[in-house]
Amino acid sequence: MFFLFPKKRRDYLLNEPLARVNQWMDDNQPKLIRFLQQLVQEDSTRGNEYKGQAVIIEKCRELGLALDIWEIGKETTEHPYFYSDRTEFIGNPNVVATLRGSGGGKSLILNGHIDVVPIGNRADWKIDPFSGEVKEGKLYGRGSTDMKGGTAALIYAMEAIKACNIILKGDLIFESVIEEESGSAGSLATVLRGYNADGAIIPEPTNLKIFPKQQGSLWFRIHVFGKSAHGGTRYEGVNAIEKAIQVIQAIEQLEKRRNASIHDPLYKNIPIPVPINIGKIASGSWPSSVPDLVVLEGRMGVKPEEMVEDAMVDMDQTLQLLIKEDPWFNQKPPTLEWFGARWLPSTIEKDHQLVTILQDSYKNITGTDAVIEASPWGTDGGMLYHAGKIPVVIFGPGTTALAHDSNEYIELEKVFIAAKTIVQAVLQWCEIDELS
Amino acid sequence: MFFLFPKKRRDYLLNEPLARVNQWMDDNQPKLIRFLQQLVQEDSTRGNEYKGQAVIIEKCRELGLALDIWEIGKETTEHPYFYSDRTEFIGNPNVVATLRGSGGGKSLILNGHIDVVPIGNRADWKIDPFSGEVKEGKLYGRGSTDMKGGTAALIYAMEAIKACNIILKGDLIFESVIEEESGSAGSLATVLRGYNADGAIIPEPTNLKIFPKQQGSLWFRIHVFGKSAHGGTRYEGVNAIEKAIQVIQAIEQLEKRRNASIHDPLYKNIPIPVPINIGKIASGSWPSSVPDLVVLEGRMGVKPEEMVEDAMVDMDQTLQLLIKEDPWFNQKPPTLEWFGARWLPSTIEKDHQLVTILQDSYKNITGTDAVIEASPWGTDGGMLYHAGKIPVVIFGPGTTALAHDSNEYIELEKVFIAAKTIVQAVLQWCEIDELS
Question: ipTM for the complex?
Answer without folding.
Answer: 0.85
